[in-house]
Design brief:
Number of domains: 2
Helix content: 55-70%
Order of helices and strands: HHHHHHHHHHH
Distance between the termini: 15 Å
Low-confidence stretches: 142-147
Shape: elongated
Structural class: mainly alpha
Number of strands: 0
């Protein structure tokens, strides 16, 4: 977990210099701002998780850089070890995943893919797939002296999730394909992420990506 936090911080720094286009709400700025301000106030003023999630969903079409900054602030306040915090974190991540930008993509990679809610994980994988080049750059950032090989921590965590959770296997594999450009025999790029993997397909995926990991990092994958 600590390593992913460090990777997230590094990725956010990289995003500051990556030139990815931003695309937000089409309404007039004044109208959008007014609606967004009201929803943010409703989110902050409520103690009911369901009502907060309702406000978050309504904010999705009204996103602006300023709204995303507020969401980042709110995200940083959440304790994801608590059920309410995890649900709200998932709500924010899902909003970002609908139309990701370079500024929120690191959260999808290093937080969303490891959320406990499989629907959140799948939404984040879909969002990452909307910006493959930026995602690939973030997953291939440099490392500190003495740290594991480039990408090793992230690859380890992705492979562990694939082994532990069959319900997010398709999501993990899609991200690995985006990152590496490799595809195992029988891989289906258009498969629905919520579909349950067949036993033989899951076994083939685990074998292929475990071999890839061990060849790339020249070490056994420790689960």
């Amino acid at each position: 977990m600590l390593n992913r936090m460090l990777l997230l911080c590094g990725a956010l720094s990289v995003c500051a210099v990556l030139g990815a286009p931003q695309s937000f709400a089409a309404e007039s700025p004044a109208k959008t701002l007014g609606k967004a301000d009201a929803l943010i106030a409703a989110y902050r003023g409520s103690t009911n998780v369901a009502e907060k999630l309702k406000s978050l969903r309504a904010l999705g079409p009204l996103r602006t850089p300023a709204v995303d900054q507020v969401l980042e602030q709110e995200f940083s306040k959440l304790d994801a070890t608590r059920e309410s915090g995890a649900r709200l974190a998932g709500g924010i991540l899902t909003v970002w995943a609908q139309k990701p930008t370079k500024d929120v993509l690191p959260y999808l990679l290093y937080e969303g893919l490891f959320h406990e809610d499989a629907d959140v994980v799948r939404a984040c994988a879909d969002g990452i797939g909307q910006m493959p080049e930026v995602a690939r750059a973030l997953m291939s950032t440099g490392r500190a002296a003495g740290a594991p090989a480039l990408g090793e921590d992230l690859a380890t965590d992705l492979l562990k999730r694939m082994h532990e959770r069959s319900d997010v296997m398709h999501a993990m594999e899609r991200v690995l394909v985006i990152w590496t450009g490799k595809k195992r025999p029988g891989y289906q790029a258009d498969i629905r992420l919520k579909d349950k993997p067949a036993d033989d397909a899951r076994a083939a995926a685990l074998a292929f990506w475990t071999t890839w990991y061990e060849e790339r990092f020249r070490k056994k994958l420790k689960l």
